[in-house]
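Working notes for the structural subgroup meeting. M.R. asked for a predicted model of this chain before we commit to crystallization trials. I am recording the input and output together here so anyone reviewing the notebook later can reproduce the run.

Input as submitted:
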Amino acid sequence: MKGPLRVAIVGAGPAGIYAADALMKSDADVSIDLYERMPAPFGLIRYGVAPDHPRIKGIITALHKVLDKDQVRLLGNIDYGTDITLDDLRQFYDAVIFSTGANADRALAIPGIDLDGSYGAADFVSWYDGHPDVPRSWPLEAEKVAVLGVGNVALDVARVLAKTGDELLTTEIPPNVYEGLKANKALEVHVFGRRGPAQAKFTPLELRELDHSPTIEVIVNPEDIDYDEGSEAARRNSKQVDMVANTLEQWAIRDHGDRPHKLFLHFFESPAEVLGEDGKVVGLRTERTQLDGTGNVKGTGNFTDWDIQAVYRAVGYLSQNIADIPFDDRTGTIPNESGRVLIDPGARGSARYLTGVYVTGWIKRGPVGLIGHTKGDANETVACLLADRALLTPAPRPDPDAVIDHLVAADIPFTTWEGWYRLDAHERALGEPEGRERIKVVARADMLHASLAQ
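Returned structure, recorded in token form:
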């Protein structure tokens, strides 16, 4: 293969950028284009992390250094499957890596989950993070709200619902989100988990952050502090699990204060039904569970009806099917072996794989783990790609200008890394008069205007 290895990476979130970094750190001569359907890069960091988490958003600093390198080029506002296809990409690249992540809500099969007032956490996160493709308003009329799930996304949703709009005004939230949160009527937020404290998927830092707000009283029922042999083993084997359990224990025994918003963390309550009246949420029914000795739980047959007017399910993200690529609807992933996309698991040798097509990140392994875990995914996938180099079909049109000519001819307005710097400067300028780091631009047209301005 003559010339640099031409690689397209579809998805410019952390997973895609880590893959680009791994390629550039190899001994191979590479030329990389990162495709992103949003006008701005960074994926989950920009549109999936709560605005009051500047520590996590600091990861962007490291990602910036990757995109600043000469071997990589950003092509944003390009929707794979619509603006460009796999056949198109094969014309310009020797290999393609898909890193499209997971941005939909996993289903929860209980009666009433589709009632008015029942929402997916991913949709709410997209709203408060200023995603350009979601409505600008969000209904926040409920005084008592349930969040189903005990992971970090559930904590983010609960915390944003419990905080005041003014508390979040110091962050990058756009004006429409501030106005929505300022009018939020929630006074009680109830987080429900079907298992116990030792099985919660919170990280210790995320959990402790709940208690930092001067307006939020975090309440844990002492009866929910329970462990079996499996739970105790989990605590011994994981410092993180033990820290979470210790924090919950401390909250369970302390006296309650007088902060105006109450955030309840409930354990051993399995959601059984969302209760409705006239098509709207009026309550939540849960079944009390108990530990079975292994860290798992079983139902007790005892049910409780909670006075709730809105329900948010935070039971996991789900990746979406990608055009022209095999997809496993059961797992919500692209079938793969170490990042090589599988088309026939029963075949031998290269016949098993979709030649020159690879996958990394959540679309590869499912939406589990922290952002940093995608580095290992990227390294594994890139190692396979480089090992396959002699088997790849060379791109017929490898000149980097060829794909630009294709996009221009198709009249597709695309953004670049230089355009991100312009958008970044524009958002920072919007925030400066208010003493804020930035104010996020929401509308796609406005993002394009700022990015493409000369």
